[in-house]
Amino acid sequence: MDNSSPLSAGHLLVNELEAHGVQRSYLVPGESYLDVLDGLHDSTITPIVCRQEGGAGYMAVAEGRMTGVPGIAMVTRGPGASNVMVSIHTAYQDATPLVVFVGLIPIAQRGRESFQEFDVNGWFSTTTKKVLTLDDPDKAAEVVTDAMHTAVTGRPGPVVVGLPEEILAKASSGTALPPRTHGSAAPYAGDVTELRARILQADRPVLIIGGEDWSPATSRRIAQWSRDRGLGVIGTFRAYDGVDHDSPNFLGILGFGASEVAKKTFDEADLHIFLGCVRTDVATNGFTIGTDVKTVVIGPDADAHGHFGSLDQHIVTPVNRFAQALFTEDGARAYSVSSDGSIDEPAAGDEHLTGNDEPVPLPEWIRDARAELDEWRVPITGGPTSAGDASFVDMDEAFVHVRELLPDNAIITYGAGNFSGWATRFLPTHGFPSALGPRNGSMGFGLPAAVAAGLVHPERAVFCIAGDGDFLMNGQELATAAQYGVNLTVVVNDNSVYGTILGHQDREYPGRATGTALRSPDFAALATAFGGLGLTVERTEDFREAFEKALAHEGPALVRCLTDPAIRGARV
């Protein structure tokens, strides 16, 4: 293309994404947005070619969660748009910044039941923050800027941009625009003062952490502050990596598979401080625990979307800004934050002072709860591996080896199913971002998320735990991992059943299980066929060696563990 010629709308769209710092676009190509694909040819943005739009969307969700920059997915009209919907729902319920570009039929063909036609607003308007359509080539940069801004401001979420085929190829008089300033409110000094007073008045104050507006520096700041204020800390469902789990006041995770001590701590608290998250049905076991408690919500959403129950103080500010405010308003004398975000210990004699308050030693109830959590997080080994005589892998014991061999900075990913409980129970995380799971309970998220994690953080180990049903939701993305040389390790719990649903059937309709049995392929052979390393383990004693080989392999590696369908979760 002549450099002196005006850019096409499709090329300008790509330039605008570059101006917003986008590094990757996860896509399945389609003829409806060819000009955008052509614009990527000479772009600094790396196109990650995926094998199904659902996988592409999940990768974009994972990238948005890790970086705070909206993940970018590109798909074609009709079938492509329907496939990507699962990731849009995930981003909407998980409050993750995501922008999905969807090719559309030419404008002149609208309303004629044209090939792959659909109503982009009708499909997506109820599950997005905004739906935009680029009907004017001169507004290409403006539409992208609007989408990127909307996705990250307030409560983050997904934005869908429709791209009529012929508009993309038209010359645009527009030029790339600077990203809009992302304003965020800082807490008033009075907010911090009131919060401090509430904490001092409480006997059992608990901080519930969640959301995605975290950074390594914020993680350290919040961990320090919560210790100094004598707060018990609990992670919310599948968003629990905001604080290092080695912190002595970290007391577990809420949601499905929660420990009894986490639920008890939450239920017996007399002050709930939700930081980056809100009180939901999953966290409260269907609003049956911890609902009638003095409550503070701290987050960027002025609507406190999804929060139910009492709300006695609402501090509208992002997590990062709140953490900064603590160390300027509440602890300027006590803490020195270095340029890399690390926190220097106070000078001798300061004793972790915050403001004019005396230090608060961790109370006995926190120390007792932590001891109970530590005991619960130790896998029970030496028990039966099956309900019968056959030999199977004991996943509790396998996770002893996973925990020992995984580096502390590993990123852990999973989809939905009982198998995820082994990760959430036995694999502590040590700083944001370290855990990627779908808070909307969407199966098939783990492997695409692992691919994105390996691309965003190639310097870190990436571990995905999957069930046999979950894995085949997006197992084809092993091909994407192999194509781009992504280092990741997958453990598949192969028990030939949709275990979570079978558990519900056993409880509600005992002896009448229907529609939950699976006949799975040889996942190890599948991984090898995709260009990775595939290993099968049938006995517990063989797991460690296989997992070591998988971790050491350059590229994608998979360990298939044959397990008993009658044992569907960690022993208690």
UniProtKB/TrEMBL annotation:
One Pfam family for this entry, by name?
TPP_enzyme_N
This protein is called: Acetolactate synthase-1/2/3 large subunit
GO MF, any single term:
flavin adenine dinucleotide binding
Alphabetically sorted, this entry's keywords are: Thiamine pyrophosphate
Thiamine pyrophosphate enzyme N-terminal TPP-binding domain boundaries? 9-120
Thiamine pyrophosphate enzyme central domain spans which residues?
193-326
Q: Where is this region: Disordered?
A: 337-361
